[in-house]
Amino acid sequence: MRATITSVAHYVPPTVLDNAYFAKYLDTTDEWILTRTGISERRIAKEGATSDLIVPAAKECIEKRGITANDIDCIIVATVTPDHSFPATAALVQHKIGANNAWGFDLSAACSGFLFSFITACKLVESGAAKRLLLCGGDKMSSITDYEDRSQAMLFGDAGAAVLIEPSDDPDCGLIDYIAKIDGSGAPYLKMIAGGSAKPSSLETVQNKEHYLKQDGQTVFKAAVKAMADCSVDIMKRNNLENKDVAWLVPHQANMRIIVATAERMQLPKEQVMININKYGNTTAATIPMCLSEWNAAGKIKKADNVIMSSFGAGYTYGSVLLRWNANK
Ligand code: UT7
């Protein structure tokens, strides 16, 4: 038995920050941001926490499937900006949507959070340990972005998304294969320095801006291009897929140039790549499910389409997943 996505939804907050907003107070331009990243605008949550971005998506996802929150037996939240260190954001989402029969937990894998929790969710469903699993990916990146730093201020956005994972009613569809890797040698290049047990919060850590994310952009960029392209090409090869057999690449949306380089290595035309970074920036755990949600709503993903999802993030964490699309009846 295979596990598959049977419903998908997303939510973005209404406030839009366009590139002109940053050009007003930082030494940057719309042209630099657009050509170096592919981003035109991003959404920012003026109030609320990550769970408040996830809950509207979760409710819509459940409603679209024609079930109730009480039918959910497990909730996983992928996030790097949990509402609190503890309790888990999954517990807060469970309570807010009234999923009274669920257990659940948070999964921390930064920009690969959705990919890693998708694999985890499918394995729980394949084993019978869960039957209707609500998998949420959401991040309030504005809560950890330094808006005075031009090397990061314009990269990120806030969003929440949710997918329902259930047994597939077609044995040929669902999760087919995955490659997932974690490599802590990359930890220094993308991290939050303070606030954890290695460096607890103090007046000094706040003054030193150590509660914002820190990134060595060029190092991460090079590692991301290689990892996403290698994993995506490998998963094609070992499943005997040529470019004509792949319907969609769904890449993590961190930088348009990383997306284009990955697609080129797979020899996929841009028309077969889900790209919405221009509208939302990098929303970390929400990027891949948001693409799936938008493309599914537009009727562009067909049953039995081979969909390759690929991501790279802090850790490093990275990988690619082959999903044969089936939304069930
Ligand atoms: O999602 C998790 C994984 N994260 C990623 O995948 C992010 C990967 N990295 C990137 O996307 C890119 O490295 C960035 C978008 C962060 C930066 O782009 P870049 O092409 O690597 O720029 P750079 O850091 O090499 O900087 C090039 C130049 C520098 O000036 P000089 O030294 O050549 O004079 C920077 O100071 O661009 C300058 N610069 C800017 N100029 C205008 C850096 N940021 C800006 C800016 N506006 N916002």
Which helices and strands occur, and which strands form pairs?
Elements: E1 3-11, E2 15-18, H1 19-23, H2 30-37, E3 41-44, H3 50-65, E4 74-78, H4 89-97, E5 103-107, H5 113-126, E6 133-140, E7 158-167, E8 174-182, E9 190-192, H6 203-207, E10 213-215, H7 217-238, E11 248-251, H8 256-265, H9 277-280, H10 287-297, E12 306-313, E13 317-324
Parallel strand pairs: 4-5, 4-6, 11-12
Antiparallel strand pairs: 1-7, 2-3, 6-7, 8-13, 9-10, 12-13
The structure holds oxa(dethia)-CoA.
And the CATH topology of the largest domain? Peroxisomal Thiolase, Chain A, domain 1
Main sheet, how many strands, which sense, barrel? 5 strands, mixed
CATH class of the largest domain: Alpha Beta
In DSSP terms (H or I, runs of 4 or more residues), the helix count works out at 10
Number of domains: 2
User: In angstroms, what is the radius of gyration?
Assistant: 19 Å
Mean pLDDT: 97
Uncertain residue ranges: none
How would you classify the helix and strand content by structural class?
A: alpha/beta
Strand content: 15-25%
